User: Fold these one by one.
Assistant:
Number 1:
Amino acid sequence: MNFLVFFQTQADTSKHVSLGIRETIDKMAGMSFTELLGFLADSLVKIGLKVLAAIIIYFLGAWIIKKSKKILREILVKRHADASLSTFLQSLLSITLTLVLIVITIGTLGVDTSSLVALLAGSGLAIGMALSGTLQNFAGGIMILLFKPFKVGDYIEAQGYGGTVDSIQITTTHITTPDNKMIVLPNGALSNGVINNFSATGTRRCEWKISISYGDDVEKAKRVILEILEAHPAVIREPAAPFAALDTLADSSVIIVARAWVKFADYWTLYYEINEKIYNELPKNGISFPFPQLDVHMKSAAAEKTN
């Protein structure tokens, strides 16, 4: 029904425009050369004023939009609003006001904006179907803001990518990878997929698996490793104290597993520093790191003939 109304409106508009043009041509045909010059000059002045007014309105509107975003940002900061919600609302405000500004600017040029409104209303269903993915991403952004599986500043893994969340926009989420690449994730897939949030609890557990030689003192190795962990300032005792135990009796080595809890920001610092400490301290205490071994049995040609 909306499409029929739109096409009828367009037909009426086209009819009025064609009648107006015909009347103008007939009027110009009956003018003298002097009157024609005056008419053209007057028309050009009117068109120029409309264009000038449209330019002024556009730039003034753009300035108002910029100021509105700044005011909204300051209000959200004073109210200590979540950074994710802040970026989302600013993006939504900017897009909405920009669309309004475009309609006003077009109207200032003398274009009948009612046909534009009719177009938007009449083709609403078609636009909705064409932008189904975008609408899904928009709904995904709302879900992320409501249920907060992550927020700006969290380190997450999702959709095969890992990085720190920089901003949550209307339809996308921007993350920065450890090697400083910007990744743009669609909110629809993000809200419906698996999200691994490393920052949510504020702590993480580090784990090391250390191979020592068969015959070495396992209890001594465990004791040295625990001393190394307990001496490091980044190790925390909540939710659990440092831990070390015999994990696996492998083919060429005995594997000891060690675990310690750390604040999220200190995870990699602790991991690499403990690696280095273990490598340096275990040999000093008579604990060796084995190389892969393979026993090969060879038979001589004479022995094979005898057999």
Number 2:
Amino acid sequence: MADVRMQRLANVLVNYCTEVQPGDWVGILGDVLSVPMLREVYIEVLKAGGNPHLMISDERMTRDFIRLANEDQINWINPSEKLYYEQADVYIRVGSSTNTRAMTNIPGKRVQQIRKAQSPLLTTRLDRAAAGAFRWVGTWIPNEASAQEANMSLEEYEDFVYGATFCDKQDPVAEWRKISAMQAEKINWLQGKKQVKLNGPNIDLSLSIEGRSFINSDGHKNMPSGEIFTGPVEESVNGWVRFSYPSIVGGRAVSGIELTFEQGKVVKASAEQNEELLFAQLDTDEGARYLGEFAIGTNFGINKFTGNILFDEKIGGTIHMAIGMGYPETGSKNRSAVHWDMICDMRNDSEIVVDGELFYKNGEFAV
């Protein structure tokens, strides 16, 4: 019998996050490890009157493709996937893993080559989402590999995941609406503001948000969520940042990342571990050296680093930035095959000043 918290999460994904309507074409995506959760989502889509389209992948086959595919195979885009991204109404992805380090020995340039070839699908998804034509959400289910990555037992990790999504409560949607209202207040305050300055032990950075919109990430795109984000003016970013936690891409952790920006572009970069992968990301295309996202995490139910960016980027008291692709709905013009989030802790002796007024200090809003 399914965990009631899993059933609540499926209900949240279908009826709150993506608001599935009768007749919607609903893609349900996930690895074979996610099948128990995919079944619950499938049932909820049927109850809502949507048309479920199951799209199951396999972690082992994905690795086989990355290792063995030739140039033509890498550049081939599945016509059925292309049609789905161009015409479907809803995208619900359920993430999981059997081995968080399975990609460790695959060259970073190989991973980026494949991501670049598949980037037209990402661009289509984001552009249609920005236009309101495509509703999407991604989530993650408890599993042994992720629990081990987070230094927890499976039972502890289950409590963590369902706590972060509020599915340990009788009415998770009510909790997400509280988060939404709080974040809306901060976004209203930021409306029309221009210049942001960030200072602290790990950061000395300035950027412009003039003409850009902040988005209230209240669970309608990511579950869990809890952040406000925008796309900074591309050429406006200047200064330096050291990211507090490892950033994981393709199953490889890049730790000790430091970036220096001049007129928006990363002009200096270093990492303590897997620096080769950092430069593979930065050199993917022209847009990869510019910021596509600047965000503030607000979910204090996520209070520790777990090695999973879906959770870690929302840690209350942190900010994160993503090099590469920006979200069009923010006004970002940056385009790239990369969108790579990196997290900076702001809970100690740190502040954010907006147009000369203190907005955020030591991990908490000051307005």
Number 3:
Amino acid sequence: MRIQINKQLFAWDSLEDSPTLKTIQQLLDVIPDEALLAQLEASRGKGRNDYSVRTLWGVLVLSIALRHQNIEACLAELRRNESLRKLIGVESEDRVPPKWVLSRFLEKLGTEPHLTLLHQVFDALIQRLGESVPDLGRNTAGDATSLNARRRKTALAEEEQEQGLPQASGGRKEYTDDDGKVNKVVEWFGFKLHLLVDVKHEVSLAYKITDTKAGDGETLPAVLADAQRNLPDKRIETLAYDKAADTNAVHQLLSAASIKPVIQNRSLWKEEHEKMLPGHDGNSNIVYDEAGTVHCYDRVSEPIVRHKMSYIGYEPQRETLKYRCPAMHEGFECPMAKFCNANKSYGLTVRVPRDIDLRRFPSLPRATMKFERLYKGRTAVERVNARLKIFWGADDGNVTGSRRFFALLGVVLAVHGAFATLLAMAPRYEGTLGQTRLSPIAKALHGKIKPKQQPPVRRKKPVSRERQELLQFTA
């Protein structure tokens, strides 16, 4: 895989539609699956070993990486593609595992401790990228999306619940307009996938699967904690989310972690649209609205005019937001200036303590251009969701049972992290005749990854001449 030098570090549009054998081999090399495969082999014990664990794991990875519609399509390609079979240690066409073996393997992969180790494979990929890419995770965004699945009707569902896995259930999401009227309804049956992604690079940093009833604000702390463990300390600076995460608990959590919330405000004030700032009486002309925007009133003009005060900055030592007179700051005439500014050259200054309401007064006010720019980065989550659901088949809808669904989605996220690593490691070239170069990040990643040894291929025992004659005679 070669990428033009003017492309972004994670050039998702440069992924090959049909990956070459070299790319597939590199993909298998970058996935840190040693601990997971060792545990799967140990759990097998002295049971049947007709198909090795590494072969079955390779089939799952290939079915997702090669964008097959289902596992049966991947098995069909393995039967006719000898070179592809050798990459995962299958020596002949008749040694390709049947479908039911993969189904049982997926069931096994969804049990503990294998499911936790599978999640650690994804975490290890992101930790490796976080150490090599200096700005990975600096500006983040989160969201939840619907995933279709089927529910079991047998006693196995009770076993999955005892394991702590939620069951597929019906979900419903309503979209409203500015007037609060519902204009769109989405219904599905399955689970919810909560993601936290990097806005610039569109790389998933952490994920969590829940039932359809789990709220975004309730799940965000756990997802954020996973992302903080996967990234260097204090790497996350901003977090963008929709109004589903606009709760006091979320704002308190982000404030304690020194993360600037870029969260859309929920409209809860039905009658009163403005309030006086604490410490200001009825003679003051300083108010704030539900979104935390501070205004001042020109009570001399007829009619009375309201101005949005100029935001100067956040003072972390004082934990206050600083505002000044908009007339002095922006250079226009205001009849109230001589009363408010009291001959001050810089005008009236208002400091708003954030502890009045952390949800109302975030460290990055909503009525700023920077907030609007960072909030637009939330679309990165939608693009990541589209790749997971459409490109790699996370929203197949034909997976039955929580164990299989959690296992399959874990493999999909691992493939996502592995492809992100390949894109960062890919050599860059200038034009068709330019010299291919490795970036410093690619060199650092190459130093962290060691090629894996090819799985041993089991050869058939040679048939003796007498045995051949006996077979011909019996035939």
Number 4:
Amino acid sequence: MLSFPNCKINLGLYVTRRRDDGYHDIETVFYPLQLTDVLEIVPATESHLYTSGLAVAGNEHDNLVWKAYQLLQDRFPGKASLIDIYLHKTIPMGAGLGGGSADGAYMLRMLNEYWDLKQNDLQLAAAALRLGSDCPFFIHNKPRFATGRGEIMNNIKLDLSAYSILLICPQVHVATAKAFGMITPRPAPFDLSSLGNLPIEQWSTYISNDFETPVFTQHPTLAAIKQQLYDHGALYASMSGSGSAIYGIFPKNQKATIKTDTPFQSFYLE
């Protein structure tokens, strides 16, 4: 069985409160993009996870794909069978694109079908939340206005298919915990749940990503990339999540050439 876990970008991101449990409340819009990894499961006599493509750091048993497998294996021991798992990574990691979360959520979806577990989306989303705050998004995988830690989601009417998106992923490591520590939580200055009613040409006036100020201070090259996207005609440009990916939304079929001394990958999505 084969699937293609996709990434997401954040359209606006506000850090609104530091919680008593040490996490932060946020408000954001998650938007899916069709930049994908490849995930395959096949019958086996022992279960293993094999990775290819971009290098995946850490122990295989710490991977969200493996954790998703273990979660459902423990919950449904009578239906679980041994499988080999093949994960080909294309989505850059640590870039604010949610690739690892997507892989874990897609693994839940695949096993639900493969093992005939008959779990609905609400049940799968509850399981995905045990993997990570933004994992439930990839169960629904359509534009969502998110609050709480990112796990409380509501549908939002938003369609960017009439535009092209240029995604720039520099080889820059952003220390997320440090970035959170440099943010002073504040009430959201704009109601992102109404984003679909705001013309995209006005987005740069009304919406922003709270992580940009501290992260751009640490990594000026990211600010320079964002400015280049605007200089080349982007209608809106922003960092996704806590970075380091920067995206620009352009009129359909319009492209841009980005120059920087920092190595990067770029993806043009129509």
